[in-house]
Design goal:
Layout (H helix, E strand, L loop, with lengths): L1 H21 L20 E6 L4 H4 L14 H8 L3 H6 L18 E8 L2 E6 L1 E2 L1 E7 L14 E7 L18 E7 L4 E2 L6 E2 L4 E10 L5 E10 L8 E10 L8 E2 L4
Length: about 250
């Protein structure tokens, strides 16, 4: 009888062990960013400017509507002088991590290694490096693209029969960027400071014709120039190859 009771107890306990391991119980070393990716966003993508055309393509001096900026930011935007930016070597101020995803153009996304995602832009010929498994940004001089820490977020894991986990079918790439040089939110001189923090959530979506899109929802926090977070979404359509890829330099005008 005792032996039977022991066997029943083991049978009841077995699903609990499988469930615990499936939910992150005892396991080996953590998976790399590439191995853990719930979605594939690599390849060539072209921007889809479906709104705010005048702000993203050809913003004019003083056209600063719909921005939660303070008086200091307004004064800076009013004093914008693209010729001075060119002369000072600051023609890339609108191509930092905050502005470059807004620029019309293409992205090329690849895995640099198992824990590093590389995002190249032909607009301004910029390169963003997204680090998985990293903590705070290391100390050092700020740069246009700053230091980006990436992580995957997956939806709640459902369960099938018994205790077998159902793998997630989608997920979100979260990117937090700090240590950025002061730059422009819009190309017409609307500023963000070197204290700004950019948080992005990138999702992969299917199109009606079998196309693929990524949507980058970006939130900028800046205690120097913003009265509240600035939030916008930018869409990109998957391209079959490198056709149209044409890196161009930064320009201030």
């Amino acid at each position: 009888m005792l032996r039977r009771i022991g066997l029943v107890a083991l049978a009841l306990a077995a699903p609990l062990v499988v469930q615990a391991q499936g939910r992150g119980g005892p396991a080996g070393p953590p998976r790399s960013g590439k191995a853990a990716a719930p979605i594939d966003i690599t390849g060539y993508w072209v921007s889809q400017i479906v709104d705010e055309w005048r702000f993203r393509v050809d913003p004019q001096k003083g056209d600063i509507l719909y921005l939660p900026i303070n008086a200091a930011a307004r004064r800076t935007a009013a004093a914008w002088d693209p010729s001075k930016d060119e002369a000072d070597g600051n023609q890339c101020k609108a191509y930092g991590a905050v502005g470059v995803m807004q620029r019309p153009g293409r992205l090329h996304i690849t895995w640099q290694d198992d824990n590093t995602l590389k995002v190249e832009t032909d607009s301004g010929t910029q390169t963003r490096i997204l680090h998985f498994g990293m903590g705070e940004a290391p100390s050092g001089e700020p740069s246009w693209q700053g230091y980006s820490v990436a992580s995957w977020r997956v939806p709640g894991v459902g369960r099938g029969r018994g205790s077998i986990p159902v793998p997630p079918r989608n997920g979100t790439l979260k990117v937090v960027t700090t240590n950025m040089r002061a730059g422009y939110i819009r190309k017409n001189g609307v500023p963000y400071s070197d204290k700004a923090v950019l948080t992005e959530e990138i999702n992969l979506l299917p199109g009606a014709q079998g196309d693929s899109y990524i949507i980058d929802t970006a939130m900028l926090d800046d205690p120097t120039y913003l009265t509240q977070p600035f939030v916008r979404s930018y869409q990109f359509k998957k391209q079959p190859d490198a056709s149209g890829w044409e890196p161009t330099p930064c320009y201030a005008k």
